[in-house]
Amino acid sequence: MEALLSLAFDNIASKDTQKIRTGLRQIEGMLAHICLSSGKSTPSKPGHRRNQSAINLGEQPQSPPKKLGQLAEDAAFLEFFRLQEGFEWNVALRVADCLERLLGMTSSKNGQNDLLILTSLNNLQGLLLLHPPSRTIFGRENKMNLLLDLLDPFNCPAIQSAALLVLVAALIATPHNTRIFELMDGLLTVTTLFKDEETTQQVKMKLLEFLYFYLMPEAPAVAASAPNTRSPTKLVGVFDRRSSTVHSDQGGGQNRKLTRTQEEKQYDLSQYLNNVDGLVQDLQEFLPFTSGAAH
Q1: What DSSP character marks residue 106?
Q2: Which of 1, 5, 111, 221 has its CA 20 to 30 A from that of 282?
Q3: Computed over its alpha carbons, how large is the radius of gyration of the chain?
Q4: Are 205 and 288 in contact (CB under 8 A)?
Q5: Residue 286 Cα distances to 77, 169, 212, 280, 282, angstroms
Q6: Euclidean distance between CA atoms 89 and 227, whole angstroms
Q7: Using CA atoms, how far apart are residues 177 and 166, in angstroms rounded to an integer?
Q8: What's the pLDDT tens digit per position in 24-48?
């Protein structure tokens, strides 16, 4: 796996868009390999045999996704999780850096740059869900600002929608990141886009979903780093304790101030948007997100 990551990192660090695309596909293929049930490998068709290289990991047979319990017993996932604990092999950080470089590149006429940004965002969403401790990179102002920049009106609707999904993945069970989001005028950014007449209906629906998510009661933060172990039981515990683990590396008493009440967030949001009371009422009545991850 180190060889695959090394190759992918070299590619996404390039200024050549074709190499960046290849690197992002290599990462996407690795994530697919981890998340999809492998079963018995399907033999290659005659005349279409390919080298079993890291580059081809993106071409996986259609398989059902693995459940969390299966992931905890999966050798590829265990190795991936172990490698993410170190700075050298953390994929989310490298993809975020790649995304930052893409934003600084001149947009191509054929939309190739937008496609690379979309692929980067899709990869980031998967990485943050697979390895929750990687969310801490969005506790940095520059990385949070990166996501907010993608919500600017000049970006295409597909990028805006994908950025919102990554933003949700970055905030789940990580109150420190939510406070950084607020500090960086995230509420102003989101509500401005929501009220913009040129924002598409599809993006407005995503924004509304995000606001419902934001107003959800907060749980204590997920641990900043997972146990450096290959024990399946302990790895499952990392995910199961999302709603009860206390963030331990932000410094003592300040920890207690990381989480805010629904009423506090409701008041802040009402500074930018009307009828927030109605959103909260809907939230309490319909209980969205309750069948998904803990928030």
Answers
A1: P
A2: 221
A3: 20
A4: no
A5: 35, 22, 11, 10, 6
A6: 16
A7: 12
A8: 999 999 988 888 755 444 444 444 4
Q: With beta carbons less than 8 A apart as the criterion, state whether 90 and 225 touch.
A: no
d(CA 212, CA 279): 7
Q: For the chain, what is the total number of helices (H) and then of strands (E)?
A: 14, 0
* Alpha-helical segments (H) within 184-275: 186-195, 201-215, 232-240, 262-270
Q: What share of the chain is helix, strand, coil (3-state, %, to 5)?
A: 65, 0, 35
Closest CA to 5 of 13, 178, 213, 197: 13
Name, in order, each residue with C-beta under 8 angstroms of 239's C-beta and a sequence gap of 6 or more.
68, 132
pLDDT tens readout for residues 140-186: 999 999 999 999 999 999 999 999 999 999 999 999 999 999 999 99
Reduce the DSSP state of residue 220 to 3 states and report it.
Answer: coil
Task: State the Cα–Cα distance between residues 161 and 207, nearest whole angstrom.
Answer: 8
- 100: its two tokens: 């930052």
Residue 74 burial (10 A CB sphere; 0-12, 13-18, 19+): buried
pTM (predicted TM-score) = 0.78
Q: Name the 3-class secondary structure at 86.
A: coil
